[in-house]
Specification:
2 copies of one chain form a homodimer. Chain A has about 240 residues and is mainly alpha-helical. Chain A folds into 2 domains: about 150 residues, Ribonuclease iii, N-terminal Endonuclease Domain, Chain A (Orthogonal Bundle); about 70 residues, Double Stranded RNA Binding Domain. Chain A contains 10 helices and 3 strands. In chain A, strands 1-2-3 form a 3-stranded antiparallel beta sheet, with helices on one face. Chain A is elongated. The interface between A and B is large, with 48 and 49 residues.
Chain lengths: ~240, ~240
């Protein structure tokens, strides 16, 4: 298989897309371990494309979900594992140009390479056909995963996840402290801090109730110490 | 000022944009501390819109910048501080609907509220006028900041930043270890781990040289322990 011919046929068959600039997709399918233009920059762009397309889709589909729930739902669709699975289903691996060292890599490493390449393909779709082309392909590819998303109300809350995360690492539990209560009694705003002393970390959260403020603080702490955990929640 | 009239005039004057759905922009300009539909969900969407528009712009403007450099450059444009400044320049604060508690908040808190509302406005622009409308407004608003971005080559590297971050917190320095070297001598791939024992964290990076692999590992470590630091770099 020479040059861009393989990728073009693959795009046509796997995504139903006819590219204008075949070289762009050849780059999207080239890992940095191989010679020639690789997919790192396209991956940067494609990550943003995927995030927007999925954010937009979820925004419409879950009109009552909070911002935090939407973030968590999105992470279930666009994080490494689901993307690698979609890439595998598309046999994207057969199209990938890899350096000799990477050919043998398996497991986690291989998953990252597949997920990154799928992101790069999304970036190439966006450059080649604009947002509509990317939107169409992404929605089609991810539809089964989006359809299988749990009810936002079933997601574990941030305080619970933070506690579980710290316990699993034998770290002391976080300390929540109400820093300030502002506003009239009927419209108060709570500012709460969350501290994990052992890690020397302290963040704040706010909300219209103490519970909400604590959840926001826990969410921020999770993002700080375990971004993947903050993203990938399950019932 | 009643209902959506103020926002509509503001959009026209500050952004040169004529909204179809004025209620959408009224929501974008309503903080959760106020009554009625607020801007939290639009902020989620707008964050993704901003990230994509700026990613696309930087991708075109810096054709030789690496993925990591592009991420760092973007963070300088779309993080809280610059967004809050843009929002202040637009007098977005005058349009904001806030609960009584929030009216008195200043400094950091006020910056977050302004930046979040600007993101929400970007989300509303996207829903109201599609990506072109958002792209036009965002590019115009952020052009001065994008023009002032440093040469990517001048950005501090991840290893240096990680070291500075840990030193400032009296933590032990990270330990880098070459885990694997693969491939033929002329096309090797290095796998390097970076460990911060005190935090119980260990990540890996890869690249075509030991130096590159270490930088990628440091980058990932920074993202894990200090997302803001990983994003906000300076020369």
């Amino acid at each position: 298989m020479t040059g861009a011919e393989g990728p073009v046929r693959w795009l046509r068959e796997a995504l139903g897309y006819e590219p204008r600039d075949a070289a762009l997709f050849a780059a999207a399918l080239t890992h940095r371990s191989a010679a020639g233009p690789n997919n790192e920059r396209l991956e940067f762009l494609g990550d943003a494309v995927l995030n927007l397309v999925v954010a937009h889709h979820l925004y419409g589909r879950f009109p009552r979900a909070s911002e935090g729930d939407l973030s968590r739902l999105r992470a279930r669709v666009v994080s490494r594992e689901p993307l690698a699975q979609v890439a595998a289903d598309l046999k994207l691996g057969d199209m990938l140009q890899l350096g000799s060292g990477e050919l043998r890599s398996g497991g986690f490493r291989r998953q990252s390479i597949l997920a990154d390449a799928l992101e790069a393909v999304c970036g190439a779709l966006f450059l080649d056909g604009g947002l509509p082309a990317a939107q169409q392909a992404i929605t089609r590819l991810l539809a089964p995963r989006i359809a299988a998303l749990p009810d936002p109300a079933m997601l574990k809350d941030a305080k619970t996840l933070l506690q579980e995360y710290l316990q699993a690492r034998s770290l002391t539990l976080p300390h929540y402290h109400v820093e300030r209560i502002e506003g009239e009694p009927h419209a108060q705003t709570f500012r709460v801090s969350c501290e994990v002393a052992e890690l020397g970390l302290r963040v704040q959260g706010g909300g219209s109730s103490r519970r909400r403020a604590e959840q926001q603080a826990a969410e921020r702490m999770l993002r700080a110490i375990a971004p993947e955990q903050a993203a990938d929640r399950g019932p």
